[in-house]
Amino acid sequence: MKIAMDNKESILGSIPAELKEKGSKLYTSLLEDKGGFQTLLKYIKDKDPDRLSIVLASSLDTVAELELLQAPGLSFLLPEQYLQYPRLTGRGVVEFTVEKGDGSTFFPTAGGEPKNAATIQVVIDGYSAPLTAGNFAKLVLDGAYDGVTLKCASQAIIADNENGKKGYTVPLEVMPAGQFEPLYRTPLSIQDGELPVLPLSVYGAVAMAHSVDSDEYSSPTQFFFYLYDKRNIRLHKCMWLNSAPSFLSCYEPYLLSLKGCFVPCMKKLIQ
Description:
By secondary structure, this protein is an alpha+beta fold.
């Protein structure tokens, strides 16, 4: 928060004049609104990890909007050996619909009417992981996840197209905090103080799984929704060692109800 307050001029100064008013409103909301830093600090002080996770996701979304106003494209060059890969040079939003395999309805955790289908929106971040986000966007547009059943693990909802291309690889791509470009095929280690820009231990975070063949690569098709569980809070730091958070989802009230669902349609790249 101190960094944001001390650097107001430089944060807003990099925004084009025609977008200054919008940027100023986002900056103010980040510092003062209920979904911003003040509330974040309160929940940290109260040691309330459940609410903290939700507000952190909201704050990250506001930061992402500010970054979109500041940066029209990538601020770094991709390594030459990866130029043939699909890439996303910005941010996108994927929207997909899920239905329960047994025909039952969804009940949002925050209340509301039961529904036969739930709509989930996932924000994909090409600024931090252009290759990973680009690969995911292409898979969505190609219909690779249509009809895929979601599988449940202890702290994640996993989606995979088991008929993906054989021999197709995507390099592990992680943007370290404080750096200006991602690392490739290089896992981070929390033990050495390395943290990614995109946090994994946030309810609703989305990441690609690791390749079964090598930790230097991500799975080309398998991704998961992370389900925050305060009972396993001591394990979160360990999870950084083997995880590559590459894009974030919006907080969704239906995530806990996704077990055993299938995805009948996942073709909407809405933004």
